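Request from the bench team (R.T.):
"We need a structural guess for the complex before ordering more flavin-adenine dinucleotide. Sequence and SMILES attached. Just send the tokens back."

Command: build protein-flavin-adenine dinucleotide structure.
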Amino acid sequence: MSNTPNRIVIVGASLAGARAAHSVRSAGHDGPLTLIGAEPHLPYDRPPLSKEFLTGDQDPGSLALDPDGAYDELDAEVMLSTHAVGLDTEARTVAIAPAAGGTAETVPFDGLVIATGAAARPLPRVGNLAGVHTLRTLDDAQAIREGLDAGARVAVVGGGFIGSEVAASAKARGCEVTVIEAASAPLVRGLGADMGTRVGALHGQNGVELRLGVGVDGVLGTDRVEAVAMADGSRVEADLAVVGIGVVPNTAWLEGSGLRIDNGVVCDETLCCGPPGVYAVGDVARAPNGWLSPWHGDRPIRVEHWTAAVEHGMAVGRNLVAPAEAQPYNSVPFVWSDQYDARIQIAGHPDADDDVEVLVGSAEAGPASGSQDSGSRDADRSFVAGYRRDGRLSAVMALNAIRPFVRFRRLLASHPSWEDALELAATLN
Ligand SMILES: Cc1cc2nc3c(=O)[nH]c(=O)nc-3n(C[C@H](O)[C@H](O)[C@H](O)COP(=O)(O)OP(=O)(O)OC[C@H]3O[C@@H](n4cnc5c(N)ncnc54)[C@H](O)[C@@H]3O)c2cc1C
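Reply to R.T.: structure attached below.
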């Protein structure tokens, strides 16, 4: 392979893959470019699927990531409803098969971007009971939306970001909603127990029942879901169950490829996964992030964040086209979530062992105090909490405090001390 690849193939036609397609062209690649996607849709945006797409009547077309004709303009061949089923890094080919079945073929590449994301983890032992859903794709969201009739009883299994957002959307559509979470609070994985409890209080405030600290045994019903069976012997009656218990990276097609697969495709700091010209991006990639090095060294981590998928796609486009100048990935992690009328934003990398303190505003329910938010959301709480590790600010989490959050997110880039964080907080309170 010459240093600059001639034929570039991107597997996974979603956020990270689409951004990589744009990026290789902006970086000057003028050879053949192919985007292969298992879904029948052109790349679309997933965050609205658990939010406004469920609460409103949005047309699926409005979720498109790029305007009509964008891929013609990029001069990219787009193969939809097509699964990559194998990778040969010696022969430098991807084996593909149409989703509807049919003959497999191989597509040669000089440069390859693996952007196959992740799939929703199913609840074990459920089978094909109607009314039980996971949420990852547009088709999943359409099926859930059809079941959210006013008055329907909705059980949400899993109180993470997706489960919490689905609960809020179902409530907005007039459903009776119960969130079931095995941990002691919702959002523990993302926020830790203290902030998880405080933010999780949004459910109760909005009339959604929370069942905490109890696992799920299974789903009951003959053809259709009737109830969720709890590990303590109780039942949660349900007309619809939505399971949000995490994701599994889509790496099955890479078995036997020789790439290192361990909770995602393991990459180096430039997102290269070993063979020259082969990169991974987005939710499927497990790579070091230079910003995390004070705590993680060059240990690879996998995140499921919209912004990381965009940044990976952009970075890999450049690294692929100019490998001699490949840049390591280095960015303050960022994720947001909208639930009820609240916007939650997190920057940095909160850890369960971090000390957590409210820096701006008040985490207690009641009128916002000290917030510099624009006030566009009718929030009754507004605060920024800081996470402290080894004397440094490791992360911030904001509830309805967009402007102060932006200041802390910027501060985080320079690995501030805890004192720096308190200093900034003093100017914002
Ligand atoms: C409902 C929902 C809400 C979200 N909300 C937020 C939010 O509020 N904030 C936030 O930061 N993040 C959010 N996210 C996460 C964000 O959407 C993801 O981080 C992002 O979509 C990752 O992009 P990706 O391209 O890496 O992977 P994906 O979007 O998962 O795309 C991977 C694509 O590859 C395809 N594929 C898989 N295997 C193959 C194969 N073998 N051959 C061909 N194609 C294949 C898949 O079909 C899919 O189209 C949300 C995600 C979901 C599902």
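Two things stood out. The first helix runs from residue 15 to 26. Residues 367-378 have pLDDT under 50 and may be disordered.
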